[in-house]
Design brief:
Blueprint: E1 3-7, H1 11-22, E2 26-30, H2 39-45, E3 49-51, H3 54-60, E4 63-66, H4 78-81, E5 85-88, H5 94-97, H6 101-104, H7 110-117, E6 122-125, H8 134-137, E7 149-154, H9 157-170, E8 173-176, H10 191-194, H11 201-209
Parallel strand pairs: 1-2, 1-4, 2-3, 4-5, 5-6, 7-8
Antiparallel strand pairs: 6-7
Bound molecules: NADP nicotinamide-adenine-dinucleotide phosphate.
The site of NADP nicotinamide-adenine-dinucleotide phosphate has 23 residues, from helix 1.
């Protein structure tokens, strides 16, 4: 499991690619405009990285990271992602993404919608409440007192295991906030998300427990 496909090469996708290469992973990265627009980033990442289409990155990855906001029309290569563990960094931002009624009404979480769009993949919500630059700034070795912790949510224990290992390699402790129906607890505006600058495993667990669901009913 040493090749990561990364779909999305913006702030989060490019920073996750840097962290992956720094930890000896191979990276195949894609954006929406085509591999030829990623030359600069791939040059910076070095020989462990190459650019591809989204379908190519999905196909090449032992597992795949989606660092692209969710859209109601599925714009991810579901066929190439079939059977794979898919880490989704997406945060729901109505000002940017538009309003999704199922999320606003509290019927579903944004990551349950991603799971529905990728029914044969194993979706995990990961890396959502850390700002991209902090992937390096907040990292520390296992056992460091006060080590920064991140949450993971998935309906698949094997996806939680993979993310836990990856977080540890990248320098973070884990709090399991599964299943995906509970993933709203780490969403924008919640205590775990607002405390992104620093929280230990204990603080993150307490912040997840303190979350209060914000629901706007259909009018
Ligand atoms: N920024 C952060 O620190 C941060 C932290 C945690 C979570 N998040 C969340 O993670 C997600 C990504 O955030 P970001 O800040 O990295 O966004 P961003 O800088 O706007 O980057 C988005 C990337 O997605 C690509 N993309 C869009 N549609 C695509 C498609 N259909 N196929 C392939 N690539 C596609 C874009 O390609 P082009 O460049 O070609 O347009 C771009 O590379 C968001 O939901 C955000 O809320 C962000």
């Amino acid at each position: 499991m040493r090749t990561i496909g990364i779909i999305g090469a913006g702030e989060v996708g490019s920073q996750l690619a840097r962290a992956a290469v720094a930890h000896d992973y191979q990276v195949v990265i894609a954006n929406s405009r085509g591999p030829e627009t990623l030359t600069h980033l791939v040059d910076e990442l070095g020989p462990s990285a190459r650019a591809a289409t989204a379908a190519g990155a999905a196909e090449a990855g032992d597992f795949v990271i989606i660092a692209v906001p969710l859209k109601l029309v599925n714009d991810m290569p579901a066929k190439q992602l079939a059977g794979k563990i898919v880490l989704d960094t997406n945060n729901y931002m109505p000002w940017r993404d538009g309003r999704f009624q199922d999320i606003d009404s509290g019927e579903k979480t944004v990551h349950e919608l991603r799971q529905e769009q990728l029914p044969t993949s194993k979706v995990a919500k990961a890396f959502t409440h850390i700002q991209a630059p902090r992937l390096f700034l907040s990292a520390s070795s296992p056992g460091t007192p006060g080590r920064h912790a991140l949450s993971v949510s998935s309906n698949y224990p094997e996806a939680v295991e993979l993310v836990t290992r990856l977080y540890d390699e990248f320098g973070f402790d884990t709090v399991d906030n599964s299943p995906l129906s509970e993933s709203w607890r780490s969403g924008p505006g919640q205590p775990a998300w607002l405390s992104h600058a620093h929280q230990t495993r204990e603080q993150l667990a307490a912040n997840l427990a303190d979350a209060r669901r914000i629901v706007s009913f259909r009018g």
